[in-house]
Design goal:
alpha+beta, 9-stranded antiparallel beta sheet, 18% helix, 34% strand, 9 strands
Length: 190
C-alpha cells in the first residue's frame, strides 16, 4: 500500500473498473505546455517537480502526491504568429496540455510556498463529481483513447452527461513495471 497522499473523494457508485466519485476541494500547482501529449507531460513534470523539490519562495520541499493529472485546457488558446515548423520525420500534432500536481492537504492557498517559476499557477479546484475508469499497463495515447471511449460509451448508456475534456491521471513513477501501474481516465459530470 502506497503512503503517497491522494485527493479525498467518496465513491458514489461502482461498476467494475468504473467509479462515480465526489471529490473534495483541493489545491493544485499547474502548468500549461504546448507540445505532443507525452512530451508535454514530461516537460511539465520537470517544471512542477522543481517547484515541490524546493524551487519556491521559501525553499520548502513539498511532499509528492498522486495522481499527476493531464488534460487539455477548457478554453481555447488564442492563435499566435508565426507558426514554426520543423521536419521531424513523422506527423506530430501539438496541443496545449495542462498538467497538475495536487498539493498535500495540510496546505492552504495562504500557507503554500509561492513558485519561483512564472509558468506555474497555484489554484483551488472546487468540489466536483467525476466518472473514472481505472486501468493498468502503459498509458500511451492508444490506451488513453481506448479507455476514454469505453468510459464515454458507458456514461452515454447510463444517460449521464459530462462536461469538459478528459483528464488523464497517472499514479505511479515511470520506473514501476507497467503491469503494476495505476492509470485512470476521468470525465467531469454535469
Amino acid at each position: 500500500m502506497s503512503q503517497t497522499e491522494e485527493p479525498k473523494y467518496s465513491v458514489l457508485q461502482s461498476y467494475n473498473d468504473i467509479e462515480i466519485r465526489q471529490y473534495e476541494p483541493k489545491i493544485v500547482a499547474e502548468t500549461v505546455i504546448q507540445a505532443e501529449r507525452d512530451r508535454a507531460n514530461k516537460a511539465a513534470f520537470s517544471i512542477l517537480a522543481a517547484y515541490i523539490f524546493g524551487e519556491n519562495t521559501s525553499v520548502t520541499k513539498i511532499a509528492m502526491t498522486a495522481p499527476v493529472t493531464q488534460s487539455q485546457p477548457r478554453e481555447k488558446i488564442a492563435m499566435t504568429a508565426p507558426v514554426i515548423q520543423q521536419e521531424a520525420g513523422e506527423n506530430i500534432a501539438t496541443s496545449a496540455w495542462v498538467v497538475q500536481f495536487v498539493m498535500p492537504s495540510q496546505y492552504t492557498l495562504a500557507t503554500l510556498p509561492k513558485p519561483k517559476d512564472s509558468r506555474i499557477t497555484i489554484k483551488e479546484v472546487p468540489s466536483n463529481k467525476v466518472a473514472a475508469i481505472r486501468f493498468s499497463g502503459l498509458a500511451g495515447d492508444e490506451q488513453l483513447q481506448e479507455n476514454e471511449a469505453k468510459l464515454s460509451a458507458f456514461l452515454a448508456r447510463q444517460g449521464i452527461e459530462t462536461k469538459g475534456k478528459a483528464i488523464y491521471a497517472f499514479y505511479d513513477s515511470p520506473f514501476i513495471l507497467p503491469a503494476f501501474r495505476h492509470n485512470e481516465v476521468m470525465l467531469e459530470l454535469k
